[in-house]
Amino acid sequence: MTEMTTALPTQPSIDSRPRVVARRPVAAWAVAGVVLVGAVLLAIRAFAPSTAPVAQTGSAAQDLPALQVAIATAAGGSQTAAFDGLVQAVRQTSVAAQVSGAVVAIEVKAGDTVRAGQVLLRIDARAAQQTAAAATAQVGAARAEQEVATRELERQRALFKQNFISQAALDRAEAQYKSTVAGAASQLASAGAANTQTDFHVLRAPYDGVVAEVAAVVGDMAMPGRALMTVYDPRALRVSAAVPESAAAALAPGQLPQVEIRGAQPARVVPLNVQVLPAVDPASHTLEVRLDLPAGSAVRPGMFARIWMPLTVEGAPARLFIPSQALWRQGELTAVYVVGEGGRALLRQVRVGRAEGERTEVLAGISAGERVALDPQAAAQRR
């Protein structure tokens, strides 16, 4: 009995040691798992604002303004051709002399802005002034003779009433009076012509404009018909280009060409009017196309210009266009924000072609009918 009593107390101590040792590894792995899961959750929350598209939902998305979008449109059966041209002034005048004489004064120089009626050049008018003075003196003499004839006619009429002279004498007096009046009128007209001739010795600006060229110097001999200056109106300018007959006939209806002038701002403008002259040059088989520029264009006559004409071509592939302001460029990357369902904007890289005014051709990256955001910065907030 004594041995059994001593063996029983030692059995529980032997069995309890393995249980305590088996529980310690399980608790350590549990603590490590909890720590790992917490670290992953913290990492996800740290990167969530830059990658999660749902960060702008709810009240924050409602505060953003509505995106302005445009639909990518396809234009089939047309292509754009370029032709070289020159800037011309619609109103350009060669100021020439109407009389002969030496140039005695030049009041302006090339590039000056002049007003209508402003003196440009003076020609020696001494001989013309003397002729005008002589004509004025003759007018005075003719008026004096007219006064004498008038008094003589009055006396003859009084004598005729008293039967002191015959009817024939009165008729001669009236004829003499009419001849004197006609002579005075003739002298007056001659004096007016002489004064007008004197005015021809002063060249004036025909309208408000700019002096383009001065082709004379003081001392040159002016001759009738010889151009001495060139004046143009800067408010009315146009571009003239020679276009082949085939291109002029294929001009797309309803589409205006565009004018490109290097160095001008903006570089491309849409003309106010397009005129195709009917005459064909027999040597080059071309037509002259004139495009009126908008008022205020910062160009000058003689500048090089290029016109881009939309031509209708049968069988030409469709071309895709979007507004140029929808493009987003960063370095060598060109992309657009495509707005999908729910107003979500996704950045998509595109390959663009030629720009035509306010629109740009897209060669690859989007399809016809897709919506693109017009303001890339506003669209970036909705990613």
Automatic annotation (TrEMBL):
It is found in: Cell envelope. The chain crosses the membrane at residues 26-48. Keywords: Membrane, Transmembrane, Transmembrane helix, Transport. GO terms for molecular function: efflux transmembrane transporter activity. Residues 91-230 form the Multidrug resistance protein MdtA-like barrel-sandwich hybrid domain. Residues 321-373 form the Multidrug resistance protein MdtA-like C-terminal permuted SH3 domain. Belongs to the membrane fusion protein (MFP) (TC 8.A.1) family. PANTHER family: HLYD FAMILY OF SECRETION PROTEINS (PTHR30469:SF15), MULTIDRUG RESISTANCE PROTEIN MDTA (PTHR30469). This is Efflux RND transporter periplasmic adaptor subunit. It comes from Caenimonas koreensis DSM 17982. The lineage of its organism: Bacteria, Pseudomonadati, Pseudomonadota, Betaproteobacteria, Burkholderiales.
